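hey m, so remember when u said the tokens were messed up on ur end? i reran from scratch. heres the input so u can diff it against urs
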Amino acid sequence: MKISIVGTGYVGLVTGTCFADTGVNVTCVDIDETKISNLEKGIIPIYEPGLDRMVLANVEKERLHFTTNLKNSLDQCEAIFIAVGTPPGEDGSADLSHVLEVARQIGRHMTQYMVVVTKSTVPIGTAKKVKAAIQDELEKRGSNLDFDVASNPEFLKEGNAVEDFLKPDRIVIGIESEKAEKIMNRLYKPFVLNGHPIIFMDIPSAEMTKYAANAMLATKISFMNDVANLCEIVGADVTNVRRGIGSDSRIGNKFIYPGAGYGGSCFPKDVKAIIKTAQQNNYTLRILQSVEEVNEDQKNVITKKIKSHFKDIKGKTFAFWGLSFKPQTDDMREAPSVVIINALLEAGAKVKAYDPVAMEEARHYLGETIEYGKDQYDVLIDADALVLITEWPEFRIPNFKVMEKLMNNKVLFDGRNIYEPSEMKENGYTYYSIGRQPQKA
């Protein structure tokens, strides 16, 4: 079986590599010549645990190929996945220009039946636009070639994407014909041997499922952050509250950890996009508007705690542990760390930061406005406080004796609640977290 994947970003590269690992002949297409050249050498453009080894193995076995030539990749292709970016526009709506340009190129160059699959996260109704763009190009050629479109949203977690693809909870596919269903079923069969389902449905429902899923997860996070802020005011401990509600099977214990706000490439963009889709259809998603507002406010909570403690932070030095929006990724998109650091810099503070994998990516967002440390203790030298923003495993059990020798003040702001307040008090720290009472040294 031969397929093509257009786009070698996070979704496209993981998708193509995992399909190749099942024996499918996969060609990944991208217009970025440097990226394609690097991929052919085994240089991966993203950080995703396990992906580099899998790419190299499948390239070596000649099941995974990379090219800038879309036309050649269509030869004998049974399905082509569109996995290019859909960045948010000024108004929050998804920019479909890249998706539709790929669709037009497919229409210009296809020579046999194939299923054209939207893998990018796209608004409801995009498949119709893709179909129309392909059909328009075919008509220009005077061709009556048959094709199908399908919607196959991804549900990959950054940092665990390979495992998510290989062992999915479910696979959602929107189709219009039995022929398309048969091809997609064959392609995905190796991934559902664990008993989890392929859920076939109409295309608009598949497109909506992706947005609804991410919007629900974002809602749980913002809800818990809102509750955490109230806990601080009334003297409750959000950790106990989380355990109490998380034990209810109707609620569950996932995505109810309070913190400094969500970031990344999916939740912020997708919440904005579904809100915009509703507005375009004369409907208001009031809950999701609040979800977005709460999240934007939450990114300022740590800054407020810092300014409240120090009163004047001009000339103060703050050490940051973690920069990426979550562990196991170098993704800095919409990362709370950027918001917090910029606020501190604007107030005249100095920032030193360390992240296990994201410092190079962070330079695209912060430049040289901050100092990048060689390790987590290096940034603590002469620091007036430590700010933990990303809960990387290596930060969980720090050497408090070493920290005490390096820092000017034993003050810690924990944006992910990874430390126990009692432990911090024993070690003599003034400790601030999310949704719990401050511990004064």
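this time it looks ok to me. Residues 384 and 409 are 5 Å apart (CA to CA). if urs says something different then somethings off w ur setup not the seq
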